[in-house]
């Protein structure tokens, strides 16, 4: 692996090198005596994803004057925390909620999925506590607590059509943006950045993460099935209350709300196309304005960071989230 | 809470004070914004258990010249790691494996059980990384990796009648004894014990943990259902290959092996009483001799530790595992 691979000039849309880097790290460093655990984790890692979290870490390193090539492990741990949460996301509640789940639980059973995810969390913390001084292990464990808290809040909010946009943002901040923020913060901390730089990059990551989650929700309503890797409207099928739905409910008439309520009270997927159409009509534009607002906050958060190619790349990461509807973020499930 | 509660003279059979202490710590310190997670964890903690792991930590502290009352949090984390693994043990593989599971997964569903356990792991590491210097966070995360590895090995060994006693011991060392060893080691480390003392207490915990697991297996075959909190022979129903079964298979004739094999190939619980009787006849005495051997190793491991009431209590903890068959370890499920 050459330094060039990790140069801050790396184009924001060309993730192949970064992906290869994380894969290489994983293949050469991740191992367990247990073939089932290793296989379950490697499958999840190879299923796709843009490796945006390690990318944020390496760009934060560079933006604070460090050399990204010297911090590959730290960056990879950010992706592995994400992968471990995906392994656990796949655990299913008996047959009724088996739809839409990934391979781990189906192939190996829930118990192995749980243990594989636990093992991965433990393996990450075992390595992080051996290799990194305070506060990095603390930042990562606090982030994991936030992620779990956000996911439980999301479960509790399933089917709640009265969920407010503020409540939605709080869930997105915990379940998604906390790891983006930690990815940026740890990159800054590990190269001894100032408190001001660290706070700035943390804030950047948090705003970026919220925009990323909102963009993810929009793609579920607008992208084509092939680029999405799953049916359009899958969030509806799972009874998630996403931000385009919240925005559509606030802007549509009573008829749309009645259709949505009937769907959420019953279980007929026949209504999904009509609801998707309603969300596209009433909600998507408002959500896009929200995304643009968080992208702007993310860019503004970078103000204390000195100009550099890496800072420019971070801004471009944010800008990409305000892109045109056709620009898929890639395979969404493992984004 | 007075210091007297945690005096090293505390009788080894009187766990009420220690239990109250952990409960108090938990009630006053453990909190999440999420009522479901808090409730799931508190239910598991209040379901019983002897709090043997925090007890080992506090006795190790005292045996190395420290004051147990100053290390309550560290001791409580040992119990909480155990509780988090129990929450995840309850995750079920659809209806077929729902038998014998505890309340969390049944009441809240698998997803909440997984997230509650994850949250608890994260909460523990968040606090441990904030409050304790290297190597304690590293010891605990490495221990969690061992536990997961041991549990996967146990899953893979289900129904394998060719499992050797050495393979069994390796599983028990990882899934059970590693946390006993870590509980003792962390008590020593946190009061600045010498390398020799730390190694001695670690070895003590490991031998004690192996004996504890073997004793647990014996109780499944010999205790009455009331003291056990579940049907006798439950390990058989789960197709676990426990050490009394391994010992019985090695000492019985071919008839017993044939009965066991038919039971493990089929699914009729009718054969359980006959298998339990066979294990009692052929296996229990041999397993008791193994337990006595590990108890002796545990006592011998303490040799470098200076005589003290705490050292005496640690020896008594080990001796209690060689007790008469009627002496239940208490509610086994959450031991």
Describe the structure.
The structure is a homodimer of 335-residue chains. In chain A, helix 7 packs antiparallel against helix 8. Chain A has 16 helices and no strands. Chain A is mainly alpha-helical and 335 residues long. The N terminus and C terminus of chain A are likely disordered. Chain A is 69% helix and 0% strand. Chain A has a single domain, classed as Farnesyl Diphosphate Synthase. At the A-B interface, helix 6 and helix 7 of A face helix 6 and helix 7 of B.
Summary keywords:
homodimer; 335 residues; mainly alpha; Farnesyl Diphosphate Synthase; 69% helix; 0% strand; disordered N terminus; disordered C terminus
By CATH, the superfamily of chain A comes out as Farnesyl Diphosphate Synthase
Helicity range of the residues of chain A? 55-70%
Oligomer: homodimer
Count the domains of chain A.
Answer: 1
- Total helical segments of chain A: 16
Q: Roughly how many Å apart are the termini of chain A?
A: 24 Å
Q: Would you state the CATH class of chain A?
A: Mainly Alpha
Element-by-element helix/strand order of chain A: HHHHHHHHHHHHHHHH
Q: Look up the CATH topology of chain A.
A: Farnesyl Diphosphate Synthase
Strand content of chain A: under 5%
Structural class of chain A: mainly alpha
Backbone shape of chain A: globular
Tell me about the largest β-sheet of chain A: none
At CATH level 2, the architecture of chain A is: Orthogonal Bundle
Q: Please compute the radius of gyration of chain A using only Cα atoms.
A: 20 Å
Mean pLDDT of chain A: 84
The count of strands of chain A amounts to 0
Largest interface: A-B, 47 and 47 residues
Low-confidence stretches of chain A: 1-15, 94-103, 325-335
């Amino acid at each position: 692996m050459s330094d060039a691979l990790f140069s801050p000039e790396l184009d924001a849309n060309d993730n192949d090198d970064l992906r290869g880097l994380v894969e290489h790290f994983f293949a050469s460093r991740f191992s367990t005596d247990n073939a089932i655990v290793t296989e379950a984790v490697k499958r999840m890692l190879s299923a796709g994803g843009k490796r945006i979290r390690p990318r944020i870490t390496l760009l934060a390193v560079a933006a604070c004057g460090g050399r990204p090539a010297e911090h590959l492990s730290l960056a990879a741990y950010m992706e592995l925390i994400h992968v471990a949460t995906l392994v656990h996301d796949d655990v299913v509640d008996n047959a009724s909620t088996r739809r839409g789940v990934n391979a781990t639980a189906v192939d190996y059973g829930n118990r192995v999925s749980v243990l594989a995810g636990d093992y991965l969390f433990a393996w990450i913390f075992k390595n992080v506590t051996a290799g990194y001084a305070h506060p990095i292990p603390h930042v990562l464990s606090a982030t994991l607590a936030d992620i779990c808290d956000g996911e439980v809040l999301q479960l509790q909010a399933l089917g709640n059509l009265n969920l407010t946009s503020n409540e939605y943002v709080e869930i997105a901040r915990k379940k998604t943006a906390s790891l983006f923020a930690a990815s940026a913060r740890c990159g800054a901390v590990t190269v001894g950045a100032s408190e001001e730089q660290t706070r700035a990059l943390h804030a950047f990551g948090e705003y970026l993460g919220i925009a990323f989650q909102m963009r993810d929700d929009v793609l579920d309503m607008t992208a084509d099935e092939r680029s999405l890797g799953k049916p359009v409207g899958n969030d509806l099928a799972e009874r998630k209350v996403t931000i385009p739905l919240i925005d559509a409910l606030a802007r549509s008439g009573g008829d749309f709300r009645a259709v949505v309520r009937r769907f959420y009270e019953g279980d007929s997927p026949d209504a999904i196309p009509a609801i998707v159409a309603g969300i596209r009509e009433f909600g998507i534009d408002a959500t896009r304005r929200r995304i643009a607002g968080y992208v702007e906050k993310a860019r503004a958060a970078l103000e204390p960071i000195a100009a550099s190619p890496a800072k420019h790349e971070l801004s471009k990461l944010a800008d990409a989230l305000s892109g045109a509807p056709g620009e898929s973020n890639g395979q969404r499930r493992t984004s």
